[in-house]
Amino acid sequence: MEKKNCNRRMALHPQSMCPAFGGLRVLMRIDGVQVCMAADQGCLYGLTFVSHFYAARKSIVSPELMNVQISGGSMIDDLRRTIDEIARDPSVRFIPVVSTCVAETAGIAEELLPRRAGNAEVLLVRLPAFQIRTHPEAKDVAVATLLKRFGSFDQPRRPRSLVVLGEIFPVDAMTIGATLQKIGVESVITLPGSALEDYIEAGQAEACAVLHPFYERTVSLLEEKGVKIVRGNPIGANGTAQWIRRIGEALALDSSSVEAVAGEEAGKARETMAGFSKMRGKVIVAGYEGNELPVVRLLLEAGLDVPYASTSIAQTELGEEDHKVLTMLGTEIRYRKYLEEDMDAVERYSPDLVIGTTSLDSFAKERGIPAIYYTNNISARPLFFAAGAATVLGMISGLLERKEVFRKMKEYFEG
Fold first, then answer.
1. Is 148 within a domain?
2. Is residue 7 part of a domain?
3. Which of 177, 180, 208, 398 has minimal Cβ neighbours within 10 Å of its Cβ?
4. Is 379 helix (H, G, I), strand (E, B) or coil?
């Protein structure tokens, strides 16, 4: 008991990368973009690394802002000069000016920056960590900021058009597109997108399917503009059928075609999961991507025991359906989680497998429990429809079958 209380007193902040990283993933993958960052050199150093390694293999451009410049009042002039230098390249179409947590850069007045420079649109995107808690939520801020500026909401709606909102694996995007085509959807735009045109055309969409629960700002903007919102995602048999039906209803598609496809895709997913009917085990899911609860739904539907799940994002209305289903099925859920809470769950539940953050994985492996990194092993794989179920469950089945290897390794090194 004393140890648990000590952990609570020393609780680390909710695990997440720097929020600006999530926004950079969205912004730096747009064709013709060159990010200009308003931050001090520490932010620039760290975010340049992740922008190359995780985002788009592109560099960030920034004025050399030191404390003396930031406090001396020359920052806006330095930024404007840097924007003009970037705009000399005719291939640059978009210059997002990203401000981070440094108090002076976070408070930049947008009206002091140009809206255009050369051939490029200029847009201030505010990503301070004291306002945005996690990098998934920063993706939401970036997408909402882009839509607010570029979305063609004043144009007539395109019939049977849909925005699919959520950063997903490319194979999932292809599967979603093919399935939606079968039920009569005529236009699909996936956001975050790789072209400014994606954000322009999204303003004319009739509905938006929100795959992840942290896109609150974006959904609020779309609802305000009259776009219908479809919740849920095509994961597992039940979720897949429900998702297809909801899209059919939102776009007023032919009900018989929608029902046929919903039944067909649910059947494929159910058949896939039946292939793992002998799989048994207790799994803990603890990530910081914001899409953890739909993954838990898939594992529960496949017959696994998931006593505990955690995520770095807050509890949202968009994720309420998953929350109700999971808690009804006995899963303890922690939002804005701390590492110590996850570690405590490992000790309390003694799982057969941990799908977690790197820190938690190390903690589990020290106890002879198989553990894998959530981001690289779940977010980097297909997740939706039957193909996603086969990929994820196949990986987990293999890990559970080899759990004794971890126990023997622990015993070997202890000896």
1. no
2. no
3. 398
4. helix
